[in-house]
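Subgroup meeting minutes
Present: P.N., E.W., G.H.
Scribe: E.W.

1. P.N. recapped why we're keeping a running log of single-chain structure predictions: easier to compare across weeks, and new members can see raw inputs and outputs side by side.
2. G.H. added today's entry (90 aa).
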Amino acid sequence: MSRVVVGLGRETPADMLASPTGAHESRRRLLHAAHHLGLQPEDVIRLSEAVAGCPWESCGTAEVSLVAEALLEMARRVRAKRRASRPTDG
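Output recorded in log:
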């Protein structure tokens, strides 16, 4: 399986996680991608249930996409905050 790199390429989180084999595979891919961000599966599952408003097992590809977008937005905010806190030369 290829690694998900946030912020590179033109794929949306939905494109990266969408699975022709269905929701189960999309949920597995979400957990795998979140692992690369240092997140624990139970935290991703709780976040998914909160964002999607349904139990993890009921999250389909649309709900997984919403969660992926939320994770991507969090990653963007963290990156922006880190950039803003870097000392400037001069």
